[in-house]
Amino acid sequence: MSLVSSDARKPVRGLDVKRLLLTNEFGLLLLIVVFGTLFYSVSSGFLSSFNLNSMSRAAAINVMIGFSMMAVIATGGLSLAVGAIGVCSAMMCGWLLQEIALPWPLALVAAIATGALLGVINGMIEVKTRLHSFIVTLATMSLFFGIMIFLTQAQTYRGIPASFVSFGRMKVMGFSATLGPTLMVAAALIVLYNFTRVGKEMLAAGAKPQAAMLSGVRVGRMIVLAHALSGGLAAIAALLLVARNGAAIPSMAGQQGQDWLLVAFLGPVLGGAVLTGGKISVVGAFLGAVLVTVLSNGLLLMQIGDFWLQATLGAVLLLAVLLDLARRKFLERRAQ
Amino acid sequence: MSRLFVQSDWVTPMVVALSLGVLISLFNPAFLSTFNIQVLLEAVSINVLIALSQMVIIAIGQMNLSVGALGGLAAVIFAGLMEVFGIPPILAGAMALSVGLVGGLLNGLLIGLTGISAFVITLATLSIFKGLNLAITQAQPFYEIPDSVKLFGNSTLFGPFPVIFIPAALVVVLLVVFFNRLPVGRWLLAVGGNAHSAELSGISTTKTVVIAHAISGLLAACAGILLVARLQLGQPTIGDDWLLMSFAAPIIGGAILAGGHVSTVATVFGVLIVAQITQALVLFNIDPFVVQIVLGLMILTAVTANQWRELRMKHAGQE
What we know:
A: 14 helices, 2 strands, globular, B: mainly alpha, 14 helices, 1% strand
């Protein structure tokens, strides 16, 4: 089928070691190991059980935030509203738990559904008006966040059941249990994009909308679906954050949820996603977010200061896109 | 008449801005008090610079996420130079402006030379500028602002006209001349309209992109400096909430996000509309968070209307 060709990353055969070493994912893995060793040699506290736990907890959340953005990047869009959607869903969860006293599994499902619904709103507006997702999500970011603050009066919900909070603090083999849901989602996304028709159609809609439409893909529906997926994933990320904090706080992602934006793009972009759509890597986005977490954690341990961290991460993003450009230019030249 | 409304950019925003003013003052006469007009004009003076900083980039069909971060960085550098090193305000202002210029040049060079999307580059530089801001200030405001600067930011001329209105008005006039009379201004619009055909007619896209971002950085820094003068302190949070505003006003002013079509005067009316609504919500004691909701709705309405208008103009052209 012609659709398959848009899925640019072909599976690497077991014997093809050279190709494996050239992949983006291997590069990321190498960087994680290099930086990990570097930080460990500077401060042995880096691999202490306490730090491993907190680092894996942060990674679990960062990876989910990255996945949330990756879902819209797949169709060639972007979403400024991931943070706002995440916070709205978390606040919905907090409200249901504290004010309605819903059992927590139900509240979680409702929160994820809220995230997906807000995503659908983004997708519908984008498809119906044919506006770029940037401007749509810029507007809905402030809409969603403003309505949430208005409804909750900016209060924090602390009535989170102990069983849910203890999950956020639980350890499995030294790592945070919150990595569990993240790994499951990663596996589900790998299946979605590589083995299901709908996943491939999403990528096709992002790679070449015209061609996809001609071969029978309903591009509009795929865009709505991608936004719904993104909203649901943003909700899961925010719920992991609630489990960690033990409360649903309106300011947990900064002003209008904008604090998530950098992390959201860092994971997928480091992982080799093409921003015009059609090409993403779930494993790459996962490793990209882990690398960001290792860097943040290590720099904090080296007491470089909270404030330099943001500048460093910005520089990392810049370096990543420049390196990617150089790599593509190099490959092009070699192909000629 | 309807042709006038459809084709000129500034008529509709002007009518909306004026009728909004009349409407609000009917409900609450305090809206027209000298003090209120002064507060309104102060907000407009600074927001015009923020909006124009983004509009210049919209003109070339790009976006600049780092407007707020760069404006904030220039603001704290302006305040910091005066407090820590005792540098005279004029010199500190010039240095802060050059920080804006350099930041803008950096954006422009990275985008122009590499061809990487402006979104990603300015997202990265946003974090760099904001990180530098926090590293310099350690998240603490600079309080020691010289009296002359405070006076500049808070005095008025001829009744309600704030002094900071003068630099803003000057920038507006310069930009109107820039886009309508100067070749380089036309380059920006040409590149935004169709980069390929602009290139074919001998315009350097890279050079144009760098120029646009340099102007954008300069305007953002200018807004930051004026805000320090008005607030009488160099807050590290300056610029955090500029993003929405910076897009809202140009879009309400009919700017087309794909590039090539912006109007400085209409953007000014866009700023006036936003400022009046913000003010009205305060006057009627409405939750300030509603401002965000209203701004979001206004952006959506305005972009949809712009798109409809663009289609009409295309149809009119075909007839």
